[in-house]
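Hey all, quick one. A colleague (J.T.) asked me to put the pyridoxal-5'-phosphate job into the tracker so the inputs and the structure tokens live in one place instead of scattered across chat threads. No bug as far as I know, just bookkeeping. Sequence used:
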Amino acid sequence: MTLAERYRAALAPVVPMETDMEISHGEGPYLVASDGRRYLDFVMGIAVNALGYGHPAVVEAVTEQARRHMHVYSGSGYQNSVVAYAEALQAEVGDGSLTFFGNSGAEAVEAAIKAARFVTGRPAIVAFRGSFHGRTLGALSLTASAARYRSSYEPLLPSVYHIDYPAPTRLNLSADEAFAHVRQQLDQLFALEVEPEQVACVVVEGIQGEGGYIIPPAGFMPWLRQITQDHGILLVVDEVQSGFGRTGRMWSYQHEGIQPDLITLGKALGGGLPLGALIARQGLLESWPGGLHGSTFGGNPVSCAGGLATLNVIRSEHLVERAASLGATALARLQELAARPHIREVRGRGLMLAVEFQGAGAPAVVERIIRSALERGLYLHPAGVRHDVIRLMPPLNIPESVLLDGIECFADLVRDIPHVRS
Ligand SMILES: Cc1ncc(COP(=O)(O)O)c(C=O)c1O
């Protein structure tokens, strides 16, 4: 039996297989298949491997910690890699901020829901259409990027309210109009459905990830910060996909000059190993009583060692600044495609880059480009609520020439598309 046949015979089909690759290993920005083929990987485990595959500093830190101990429950005793990582995160988020470690992005969101309800004593949560916050039942109640993620699992959490995200191309509005539309939606929500005094938190992605790498209009996040503050509502910014320098700032909200109450982290947080975190500003979680939340594996010491080593490389090699400058170069190259008839928009911040296609045939075009790219040794991923976006998530330390070669390969495929009538 082939590996694919063995997979199908042994694993639940609920995770759809996107490629036929039999994966051997990774090398920097490349994924190597067992037949020896190398793929330039712009997916990176879905924005997980910030330093590509096999960075020696990360491998060494993980190996060293694995030799000492791979797991001790985080409440059993004080562990250096766990404390050191929380301290390093504190330095990035703000003095006195406190971290709770879980195992995944979804668990970070679960923790945010519980913490916000506990701290405020309020039941309701506001989230945005097009958002992705995970698939556990609490996080899924906030996720609204595809009805099929939700509809077989209802009833979900009650008292969760969704309004539109200011996504101009999705709403078919200008940026200003989209922002005004969302302001009106929140006004209406508070007037007609839930009083703001009942709302524990608003959960928002600084840039919508799965939703299509949507950058909100200037002023949106500061407005949200102000309105939540006015009503005693906690602002949770989900940085699971956008964190760790990907956008050219350590956290996406830093582009907006705001300070959230809570942030959720995952993906790159563990340096390639499973880890999630909820980080709260000073003064919020000090009174979350012992035993009200926790997890056997949360804050695994090997994951923390891998994450800390990754963060140290991001800092010492100035990869946040590099993501900003390299991202600007890459975006300029991609912008050359913007005038083509099948392209709706080219956008990006740092190395969170996306091309949105237009017309009824856009999802098929996206699928075809991704398939053709793979045949040419380039691994790409879709996004967007209509599957009409291709997102690029290269590692932050990718050599510039490799990144631009990959973009050129992608651009060639875009230029080859026959004109699609919209
Ligand atoms: C913004 C955001 N939040 C939460 C999650 C959920 O993370 P996980 O898949 O680790 O549960 C994701 C995953 O894609 C995400 O992009």
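Adding what we noticed when we looked at it: The domain at 3-54+318-416 is CATH 3.90.1150.10 (Aspartate Aminotransferase, domain 1). The longest strand covers residues 199-205.
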